[in-house]
């Protein structure tokens, strides 16, 4: 059986990323796919880009990876932009929208947020039609089997890991490595099956939670005098989104 580690939403949190990569290595998983948002929120976007570039077989683009390379009036975004080199910006600009492959007879599609946009946010409590729209083919997706829609979709973006079976299809969010908003531990998923084989066979999705040194992550942000520090600390320590209603 082949195993693929799927990580997402690193957000410049190196202690969390290092803990997840150590866990992946312990499990002897050789292929890693990243679903974007390498940068922003946390203090070490530059190092996150370099690590992901070296360890991931494929990385798709997230919303932060998209807008951080564009002009902005936000002082916070400008601070994060200043952490990146020209070469790192070019790497982010060239990231693909999605990736697809066959595993144990299933068409698997991975992207950051939705098949339509980096910014189209889908929650596990959205309507069935909204969640089923995650399986649509668009001009953004690869569509390696023509008009055939995927059997399995995994995404990132919402920092909230879950799995649902909807009308014979499987929808999975892998959570966030560096900014989880459900449990204050790094999250990733493992896809297990036979890679590249069209015959239907055994297939599984496993969620993994990895504790990491949150105090170290906070201290790194303090040392760099990162903007919006207090909301960042709240999110790391409580897993509560800064924009959530009280």
From TrEMBL:
SUPFAM superfamilies per record: Metallo-dependent phosphatases
Domain Calcineurin-like phosphoesterase residues, every copy: 3-192
Similarity section: Belongs to the metallophosphoesterase superfamily. YfcE family.
Molecular function as annotated in GO: phosphatase activity
GO annotation, cellular component aspect: cytoplasm
Top-level taxonomy: Bacteria, Bacillati, Bacillota, Bacilli, Bacillales
UniProt-recorded name of the protein: Protein phosphatase
Regions crossing the membrane: none
């Amino acid at each position: 059986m082949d195993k693929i580690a799927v990580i997402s939403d690193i957000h410049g949190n190196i202690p969390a990323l290092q803990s997840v990569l150590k866990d992946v290595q312990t499990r002897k998983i050789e292929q890693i796919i990243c679903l974007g948002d390498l940068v922003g929120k946390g203090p070490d976007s530059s190092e996150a880009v370099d690590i992901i570039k070296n360890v991931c077989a494929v990385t798709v683009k997230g919303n932060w990876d998209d807008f951080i390379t564009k002009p902005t009036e936000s002082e916070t975004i400008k601070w994060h932009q200043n952490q990146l080199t020209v070469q790192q910006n070019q790497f982010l600009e060239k990231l693909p929208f999605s990736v697809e492959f066959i595993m144990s007879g299933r068409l698997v599609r991975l992207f950051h947020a939705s098949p339509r946009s980096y910014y189209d946010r889908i929650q596990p409590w959205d309507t069935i039609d909204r969640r089923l729209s995650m399986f649509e083919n668009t001009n953004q997706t690869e569509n390696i089997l023509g008009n055939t829609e995927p059997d399995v979709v995994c995404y990132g973006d919402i920092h909230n890991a879950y799995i649902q079976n909807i009308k014979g299809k499987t929808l999975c969010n892998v959570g966030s490595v560096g900014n989880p908003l459900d449990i204050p531990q790094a999250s990733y998923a493992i896809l297990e099956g036979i890679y590249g084989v069209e015959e239907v066979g055994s297939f599984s999705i496993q969620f993994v939670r990895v504790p990491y040194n949150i105090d170290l992550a906070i201290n790194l942000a303090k040392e760099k005098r990162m903007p919006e520090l207090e909301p960042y600390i709240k999110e790391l320590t409580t897993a509560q989104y800064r924009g959530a209603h009280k």
